[in-house]
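Entry 14. Structure prediction run on the chain below.
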Amino acid sequence: MDSILVSPKKYGVAVSLCLVFGTLGIHHFYLGNWIHGFLDFAALVGGITLIAASDNSMLVGLGVMMILADIVHTIVVTIMLLVGKTRDGQGLVVVYPGQFK
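Output returned:
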């Protein structure tokens, strides 16, 4: 088995943040993935803004698509966290308790 470098970030904190604030990208900020977190946040806020501020049905549809893409992305990231396949901003694996024992 290859040597796996383990992240000092807490698995429970990352999963909790992802489940509660996943579409906002807060878990990415915690893990040090700043660009990823910003893109998650921008997708949600941008989607809500397009829906709320537009009379154009095409822009409303774009806003809905942005929010749905963010939700799907959050589900995928949550699953990756739960199975121990997520890396932090340093490239270290965020492991669940007992993953490499």
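The CA atoms of residues 49 and 63 lie 7 Å apart.
Filed with the rest of this week's runs.
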